[in-house]
Task: inverse folding
């Protein structure tokens, strides 16, 4: 199904659409995993942890991770809207920029259980991937050498 792509659609658009869809699925799965893991850690902490500062730190890192994932998901949803041609989603909207990362406090995170650390690290890596992708998409597009050659030939005719 073409889903709105015309014969004159930018060359990278199908690739961008696939990347955004795959990243969206990855982000949603990670968000669900984070929710489950942080809820379980919070419940275990209430039941038996005597380290109140660690419990507060876990709550803070849970919020940071959730915020990071929300930024990622918002960016991906905005990209989906832009790719779909939604007139309300433009490249100059604030949602079109991933922004600055919300960094985890790894001096604290090292004290968390392995699954929690893995989720925090995965959310940071996903954010970095999105930021790199955004930067690459904003870079000027250089036509392939074949296109440049064809343009020169066409200009001579």
Result:
């Amino acid at each position: 199904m073409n889903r709105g792509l015309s014969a004159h659609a930018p060359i990278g658009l199908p690739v961008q659409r696939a990347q955004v869809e795959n990243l969206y699925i990855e982000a949603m799965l990670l968000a669900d995993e984070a929710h489950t893991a942080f809820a379980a850690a919070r419940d275990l902490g209430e039941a038996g942890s005597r380290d109140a500062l660690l419990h507060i730190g876990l709550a803070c890192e849970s919020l940071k991770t959730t915020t990071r994932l929300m930024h990622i998901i918002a960016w991906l949803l905005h990209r989906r809207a832009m790719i779909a041609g939604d007139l309300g989603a433009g490249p100059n909207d604030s949602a079109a920029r991933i922004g600055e990362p919300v960094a985890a406090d790894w001096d604290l995170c090292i004290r968390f259980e392995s699954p929690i650390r893995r989720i925090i690290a995965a959310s940071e890596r996903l954010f970095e991937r999105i930021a790199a992708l955004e930067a690459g998409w904003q870079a000027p597009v250089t036509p392939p050498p074949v296109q440049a050659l064809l343009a020169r030939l066409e200009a001579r005719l």
Remarks:
- The mean pLDDT is 86.
- The domain at 13-156 is CATH 1.10.8.930 (Helicase, Ruva Protein; domain 3).
- DSSP finds five helices and no strands in the chain.
